[in-house]
Write a structure and sequence with these properties.
Shape: elongated
Largest sheet: 3 strands, parallel
Number of domains: 2
Strand order of the largest sheet: 3-4-5
Helix content: 40-55%
Distance between the termini: 28 Å
Oligomer: single chain
Length: 208
């Protein structure tokens, strides 16, 4: 805490229109513990709090959920952009296909459960397939798996034909308008999965 206190006194004499940068707060053990004393000390260094770090807002740390208790708090522009674009997934246009891939199935299970009631179809590919096939929800007719050996590449011709039939309207429209770009690419990782699973994050709740 001593470096933080010392720095606080230094910036109390900060000249007008100057910007001050601080050391990464994750270097302080009080940050990850969400220490209230630490959060209050940090809050005294400013007049308002702006969270523009959506990608770490799934963490219950002092700089994410502690400081907003002491200052007027707002979303930054990047945070707001992430929030608005990802929220579209909860009220999508149909037909809506969700594609899940990756390695860690346990981090995707919450998303799978949530979107079984939202998506028209869910395609599970990549290394997720092996574990996903072992759970009861795998028998849900909404879920599509690759055809053939699940340990092999899943983008085979037969699998692609199945996907084309399921999303034929989407494919037709995409071809018609020459769509070949993503409308949104998120900067987050774990925060996306938690947000899509729960519809919110600790950092969002903290902003009120």
């Amino acid at each position: 805490m001593e470096p933080v206190i010392r720095r606080f006194w230094e910036i109390s004499k900060l000249e007008k229109d100057k910007i001050e940068f601080f050391e990464n707060v994750r270097k302080f053990p009080e940050e990850e513990k969400n220490d209230p004393v630490f959060a209050k000390k940090l809050s005294k260094m400013g007049d308002i709090y702006v969270n523009d770090a959506f990608s770490v807002s799934h963490r219950e740390h002092a700089s994410i959920i502690g400081i907003p208790k002491y200052l007027p708090s707002y979303m930054g522009l990047l945070f707001e952009n992430e929030f608005k674009n990802l929220s579209v997934a909860f009220r999508p246009k149909h037909p809506f296909l969700l594609i899940l891939g990756g390695v860690k199935f346990e981090t995707k299970l919450g998303v799978l459960d949530k979107f079984l009631n939202i998506a028209d179809k869910i395609f599970i590919g990549g290394a997720l397939v092996v574990k996903a096939l072992k759970i009861p929800v795998a028998r849900n007719p909404k879920i599509i798996f690759p055809v053939g050996d699940p340990t092999a590449l899943d983008a085979n011709a037969e699998t692609l034909e199945i996907l084309k039939k399921e999303v034929k309207d989407t494919v037709a429209v995409a071809k018609k308008v020459g769509l070949n770009k993503f409308s949104f690419v998120s900067t987050a990782g774990g925060a996306i999965l938690e947000f899509l699973s729960n519809g919110t994050l600790p950092g969002i709740k903290a902003l009120g």
